[in-house]
Amino acid sequence: TNELVFSGRTDDKGMIIIDNLRYNDYVLYEKEAPESYVLNEEPMYFSIKEDGEVVKCTMTNEKIKGTLEFTKVDVSTSEPLPNTLIEIYNAKTNELVFSGRTDDKGMIVIEELEYNDYVLFEKEAPESYMLNEEPMYFSIKENGEIVKCTMTNEKIIVEVPNTEKDENYLMEIISGIICISGIGIVIYARKKS
Fold it and tell me: What is the pLDDT of residues 117-137, one digit of tens each?
């Protein structure tokens, strides 16, 4: 008849006991999955055909899982940065869930990340780049969700001394020494005569 005969939630053991169901054919639907699990949309059929009959049914749920697509690029040029070491932690428990390096396209794709809040840290910058110390937060909340994150790095700038200026300064010092030496020779020669 499609008439609702029971609605309720499982207990802390994941069970529901429904007494006094009458002789009939029934269909059970999951209407709300537990947090971090995918709703099981398959109907479950059972029947009560004998007095005092106990019917045992088990329904399963899959965990919500998603994918992170992480990209590392140069802050100025957006060029991909390979060989960056990153670590991802569970934001609630601080447990390490992934450690790895970006590929030659500056990417890491991590599949099968379970429903959770996460924090990503750069642990080793690519060669000639400064370490990005800003944590990056992301979450997986829906099954099949794809989260895309991009992190940037700045190049290490090395100041090269201005050798032209240094050469001019050196020439001025040498010229000064020659002048002083010349004056000294002239004074010495005058004293001799």
Answer: 999 999 999 999 999 999 999
